Amino acid sequence: MLPDEVSVMLGLDEPDDPEHVRARVARALGVREAELPPLTVKKRSIDARRGRVRFRLLVGLEGEPEELSPELPREVSGPAEVVIVGDGPAGMFAAYELARHGVASVVLDRGKQVRPRRKDLRGLTQLGVVDPDSNYCFGEGGAGTYSDGKLYTRAHKRGNVRDVLEVLALHGAPPSILVDARPHIGSNRLPLVVTALRERLEGVGVRFRFEARVTELLLDQRRVAGVRLADGSEIPARQVVIATGHSARDVFMLLDRAGVELEAKAFAMGVRIEHPQPLINRIQYGAAAGHPKLPAAAYQLADHGVFSFCMCPGGFVVPASTEPEGLVVNGMSLSRRDSPFANSGLVVSVELEDLEGTGPLAGVELQRRLEQAALLAGGGRLRAPATRATDFVAGRGSSTVPKSSYVPGIVATDVAEVLGPRISNRLRQALSGFDRRMRGYLTDEAVLIGVESRTSSPVRVPRDPETLESPSVEGLYPAGEGAGYAGGIVSAAVDGMRVARSILQKRVAMRCSTPMNA
Questions:
Q1: Are residues 283 and 203 in the same domain?
Q2: Are 232 and 109 in a shared domain?
Q3: Are residues 31 and 56 in the same domain?
Q4: Which domain holds residue 278?
Q5: Distance between CA 402 and CA 389 in Å, rounded?
Q6: What is the pLDDT of residue 153?
Q7: Nearest by Cα to 219 from 264, 262, 263, 254
Q8: Is residue 147 located within the same domain as residue 235?
Q9: Are residues 372 and 335 in the same domain?
Q10: Residue 134 carries which DSSP code?
Q11: Number of structural domains, the chain?
Q12: What local confidence, expressed as pLDDT, does residue 518 receive?
């Protein structure tokens, strides 16, 4: 009896057409090709262990591959029954799931649609002008729209990841995201996917309002009654989903004012480290570096609470500030990943005991302090303080720095003075250890750029583990990364769908408990 799936290896110079893959599977199973059913490549990854670079294919033997057929949203009509605050993946997929069941919603976002948002990003990158409502974090699609489009997640136990990927593929994401071990769309293609998804929802009656910043949660006793916007208008609702991402600090404050329970949570801060991409290729691929079949090499490192984060092969370092008084950096890659630079967050875990304050916003204040110090050290206009990795480990600043992809420019200085001794000392120890694992990683060609402070939300908005509802305000549903329940595009989308299903279940229960008129 044949297994449901089998793993086979292909050399770099082997053909990868279906006929050759079929022959390799037959050989691996010791059967004739005629005995095999139709095959499907379910997962594809690169195996570079022991200095031999190959492609690993996980091949399914269950018959013909399934057609791409995610459940589509249904036509909705009438006034919006649910208000969703935030048009990132959690908010958008919450609206999608509600529409699948015929429930109307309105999605509010403080930022702009994809096209006008681009203009504000140019002002941010080229002129150093920060629009607090339209930037790399806020606007249609959320922070992920222009920040690489990585779809790798460990959230498989929390929801249907395949469903999310199929919805994205249906709206223009490359089909490869369904099989690649570390799927990626790219910051040039993801905006098109986000737009197509929004247009699908608008076509069935879901409403979207941009440049609609929420300033107050309206309550009736301890129950949600709606939201108030910056223009003074109010939108009534019995259910409100808060899906505003990890950088909407004013939303944390308005929730706090409304008496919603908040708590500080652990997060991480540090720097972006940038290398020449050919160097990372040589370290990871060895003699195979430069092979035309190989993509720009990636890496993942971790050691005692210090870890790489959102590694961007063939990418760019970008300014991700949301406040004019602070500097934040992040990374992104286009779909081809063909920049000559590789960058990654290199961050240190910040535990609750590391925070100076005791309130739920203590982590936010630490972020702000380092971001303001980074802006000051760079000299303004979003120029970033930078130190060669070798100088940093030696405990000194740099007098010169290598070329960088960071458009506003980097300034040679001592990043340790921005980070403070605790984070700096942990980074120094980790860099030496990482160089032992990736020989050549610690080099004067590598530069540390500060400050990477928005890896995840420093705040959690508690919710009931069964109903996913806030225990302090009935009808309030915290969702996604900003509320502390996700870490990336796919996990946030999965969480948004979970929250939507909880709302649907409550609506059914409410209808069943309402006595019928005699």
A1: no
A2: yes
A3: yes
A4: 264-452
A5: 11
A6: 81
A7: 254
A8: yes
A9: yes
A10: B
A11: 3
A12: 44
DSSP string for residues in 360-424: TTHHHHHHHHHHHHHHHHHTSTT-EEEEEHHHHHTT---S-----S-TT-EEES-THHHH-HHHH
Say whether both 299 and 417 belong to one domain: yes
Look-up: residue for tokens 């940093």? 392
The predicted pLDDT at position 297 comes to 97
Rounded to whole angstroms, the Cα distance separating 106 from 237 reads 10
What tokens were used for 172?
A: 């223009």
Q: Rounded to an integer, what distance in angstroms lies between the CA atom of residue 229 and that of residue 227?
A: 7
Q: Indicate the pTM of the whole model.
A: 0.94
Whether residues 234 and 318 share a domain: the answer is no
Rounded Cα distance, 504 and 509, in Å: 9
CA angle 114/232/230 to nearest 5° reads 40
Q: Does residue 331 share a domain with residue 221?
A: no
Domain end point (choices 435, 452, 469):
452
CB half-sphere exposure, 349, CA atoms < 13 A: 11
Q: pLDDT (tens digit, 9 = 90+) per residue, 298-352?
A: 999 999 999 999 999 999 999 999 999 999 999 999 989 999 999 999 999 999 9
Measure the CA–CA gap between 486 and 68, rounded to whole angstroms: 26
- Beta bridge partners, 71, equal none
Beta-bridge mates of residue 228: 216, 234
Polymer length in residues for the chain: 518
CA distance 205 to 209: 13
